[in-house]
Amino acid sequence: MGEPRLSFDLDKLPRGGPRASRLDRCLQTDRQEFLDRDDVPYRIKGSVIRSLDRMGERWRLHEKFAELALEQVAGTPSPKILELGSGHGGLSRKLLQLHPRAEVVITDVEPESVARIRDSDLGSHPRATVKIEDATAIDAPDGTYDLVVFAQSFHHLPPRLASKVIGEGTRVAKKFLIIDLLRPPSLVLLAGLPMFLPIAAITQGLPTAHDGFISMLRAYSPAAFRALAKAADPDIKLWTRTDGLQQVVVASKLV
Ligand SMILES: C[S@@+](CC[C@H](N)C(=O)[O-])C[C@H]1O[C@@H](n2cnc3c(N)ncnc32)[C@H](O)[C@@H]1O
């Protein structure tokens, strides 16, 4: 199938969607997070990943994300779930704890993070497989999984790759769940940004504050998600909702 005809330039799609305001377009960046840079030692990336894991534990995000994922497979007795961009494995660990028959494939594109997950309790868990996987080119036949989940990672990808991930997630699974930072209204973003960096730097350390700051500017809006899905395949159906500070997106080709 050729690429669908689009009324916007996918490579230049604003994070706020095709009709984003001028202010919203100013409140985005192409700057990379430490986590995405090849020239940054894993020592720094690892500190961001550990902070995310700590925050996930402290604020019960791992549990909340696992519950959101399990909602999507509520009717499936032994669901097969793929986690992309797992980072530390916290969400998958919760999935395995909360569902006694779930089989979970825990992945990330970063080899060092995958090695650390494999060295943890998850490496020997009877219902877990740990491996390297690139969300933009998933190494699995169509329909392999009941669910793919990608948490707090989607904003890392520029539009063309982000669209590819939606195509891949909906190809290999019945449902693709994306949980990511909410893109706040421009004025809220504008007012909040000056406070965010110092507060995050004091509470989470500079590398995590740096990446968190950039993440807010790179978060996609619901309109952007719809445009990215359309670019991947017009047959993909997509639902978005807000849950606290998170945006919850479910995409599927089957319904
Ligand atoms: C901000 S961390 C999120 C970690 C974890 N999911 C969480 O919620 O705390 C983003 C993760 O996405 C991963 N990532 C970035 N690009 C990716 C890609 N193309 N495929 C798979 N993982 C990717 C990074 O290596 C990193 O572990």
Written description of the protein model:
- This protein is an alpha/beta fold and 255 residues long.
- It contains nine helices and seven strands, in the order αααβαβαββαβαααββ.
- The protein has helices spanning 22-26, 42-58, 61-72, 90-98, 111-119, 159-172, 186-204, 206-218, 222-232, and strands at 80-84, 103-108, 128-132, 145-151, 173-181, 237-243, 246-252.
- It has a seven-stranded mixed beta sheet, sandwiched between helices.
- α3 packs across α4 and α6 (159-172) crosses α9 (222-232).
- The model has no long low-confidence stretch (mean pLDDT 93).
- The structure holds S-adenosylmethionine.
- S-adenosylmethionine is lined by residues 35, 52, 56, 84-87, 108-110, 113, 134-136, 151-153, 156.
CATH superfamily: Vaccinia Virus protein VP39
Number of helices: 9
Bound molecules: S-adenosylmethionine
Low-confidence stretches: none
Number of structurally distinct domains: 1
CATH top level class name: Alpha Beta
Q: CATH topology, what is it called?
A: Rossmann fold
Specify the structural class: alpha/beta
Q: What would you report as the Rg, rounded to the nearest angstrom?
A: 18 Å
- Tally of DSSP β-strands: 7
Shape: globular
Separation of the first and last Cα atoms: 20 Å
Descriptive terms for the model:
alpha/beta, 255 residues, 9 helices, 7-stranded mixed β-sheet, Rossmann fold, binds S-adenosylmethionine
Task: Describe the SSE topology.
Elements: H1 22-26, H2 42-58, H3 61-72, E1 80-84, H4 90-98, E2 103-108, H5 111-119, E3 128-132, E4 145-151, H6 159-172, E5 173-181, H7 186-204, H8 206-218, H9 222-232, E6 237-243, E7 246-252
Parallel strand pairs: 1-2, 1-4, 2-3, 4-5
Antiparallel strand pairs: 5-7, 6-7
Helix pairs in contact: 3-4, 6-9, 7-8
The chain binds S-adenosylmethionine (SAM).
Residues 35, 52, 56, 84-87, 108-110, 113, 134-136, 151-153, 156 line the site of S-adenosylmethionine.
